Each structure stands twice: as structure tokens, then as C-alpha cells.
């Protein structure tokens, strides 16, 4: 199975003309034509069934993605001693680099999850990690933060490595573009779920969004089955990635089936996190996924070697969050869901702290 590609172009052309409330929207959907309602329902249906969505956004080009990945490849290729100059462990890795061997996959520490994995059919079981993830990550805040919040982030400056004069502009530009894509998808999903257009995006304002690209060294770790990111879900609202130059991402559909994701050039991958599960009372579950070396990864390694390209696998991951002081609770008609009681009202910041306590990564705002 391949996840269908949703082209956002047509929606973006009319998005600013749409009202916010379902009653107004229903009339406008008739006015613009049936395609609008059908497209939004398709977005919500795909997120519900697969936990992932592949989109094409004309504002985010393949060239933008390449520029970002080129810079991150050059960074991750630098010696370990250089990269550790950007480590801020005393700030819980909220900014700067997180070395390999720090992030712990949830499947290693969550006993309930381990029981579920043992009950899966063999062909759908995830790869078993031997320890913490052998990937590096760089944390970069995107967008404004609230001046008054119960969940004040440490007042730390962004970390910019020496020798990268384009760093800030490249990180901010790509991060803001991907946030814009998330916002469009969040509006479409809300409409598709029968909520107000801004049901999700109003809660995202001044959220602790993080551009958090990972780097995995395929010079050292190229054996098939090697785990870069163990089986887990993301704790945030929605996660977005540009296309990686090396395949290896597996996701699990709602029916338990495991599939390898293929993202066409010029497209972006979006995955559901735990916060959207909360807001929809489980109608849209947090998507489970892993990153491992597959036969397709090995083929890509061979080609990159022949072309003398970098063998660092970069994922341009961005974690989009619900604002820390906003309340997570089932929205609209999802309050009537029989599962609503499993999702009691809770401040988003409290939820994030609880989730991070489990994986011992206080300060990081996502897990991917």
C-alpha cells in the first residue's frame, strides 16, 4: 500500500475566503463545489486510517528541502568533537545538538507497549533496538513563544555552529514553511472531522514548535535491520518531514499492518502525534513508526557512494505542538465519543512533561 499524495494547491487558493464555523463552512463548501468537502474528508480519513499523510505544498519546494539537507549533511559530517561544542545537556537538550545514544525509544521502556508488540503477527512486529537510538539530533525553536506561560522554557539562546553563516536563515525559513503546511493540513482535517476550520490551529498559536533534524551515519551503520529510531509515537500534535535521501521509515496503520513509507520528490510527510489523538478522543490515533536500514536503504547507500555523496541520513523533522498553556481535551462532537473519558482535560505542557518523564528526556519536545 502507498499513501496517496494530497496536493494542497487548490485549498490554499481559497483558504482565506473560508469562514471558521461549520454552519458557514457548509454553505461555502456548496459554493466552491463538492471538491472542497471531499478533499477535506479525504485528509481526515487518511490521517484516521494510516496516521500519516503525504502532501505537496507549492510553498515548500524540493529545492528548499535540498538546501536544508545539504547544510545538515555538512554539519553532521563534522568531527564529533566539533558537534559536541553545540551540546547543551545542562539545558536538557532543548537547544543545540543531542548526541547519538541519548534518545531512548519508547518501546525499550514502556512495559505495556512491549506486551502489545509480543502479541503482533511476526511480519508486522517492529525491529528490536539494542539500546538508545544511534542518531544525532539538532534542536531549533521555530516561531514566537508566549511571554506569559506556566511552562516557561529555559531562557537559552539559540545555538549556531561556527562556519555556517547561513544557519539561522536556513533553519528559520524551512521551519516556517513546514509550519505553514501543518497549519493548512490542520485546517483541512478539522473541516473533514466536522469541526470549525480553526479548531486545531487556534490551539497551535505560540506553541513550542521545534525543527529537530536527525543525522544517522550510514558509514558506520549500514547493516540491514539496524535500528536508528526504535518503535515509538510522537507526543506532539503533528510531525512533518521533508523527503529523506535514504529510505527506512516504517509506519503502522490503524489495522496493525506495517508498511514502508515512500515519499515522492517535492512532497512532505506528515504523521499524527499524541496531541491530535487527545483532541479527537482517539478518532485519530498517534501513528507508530520506526527508522531502520532496509534493502532500499542499502540500494540508496550504494548509489550515493558511486556518486560521491554524503552517507549521513538526514531527516528534516519538525514537531508542531499545541500551545503549552492550552487545554488538551476532546473537541466538538468528539466529547460524545464513548472513548472521551480516556482523554481527560489537561494542560498541553503538563502532558508533555508526563510523556517526557517516561523516556527520560525532559526538555525535548518530540520523539521521532
TrEMBL record:
InterPro entries per record: IPNS-like_FE2OG_OXY (IPR044861), IPNS-like_sf (IPR027443)
Domain Isopenicillin N synthase-like Fe(2+) 2OG dioxygenase intervals: 227-321
Parts of the chain that traverse the membrane: none
A Pfam family that the UniProt record links to this protein: 2OG-FeII_Oxy
Gene3D superfamilies: B-lactam Antibiotic, Isopenicillin N Synthase, Chain
Domain of life of the source: Eukaryota
Keywords for this protein: Iron, Metal-binding, Oxidoreductase
Similarity comment text for this entry: Belongs to the iron/ascorbate-dependent oxidoreductase family.
Name of the protein this chain belongs to: Isopenicillin N synthase-like Fe(2+) 2OG dioxygenase domain-containing protein
UniProt organism field: Salix suchowensis
Taxonomic lineage of the native organism: Eukaryota, Viridiplantae, Streptophyta, Embryophyta, Tracheophyta
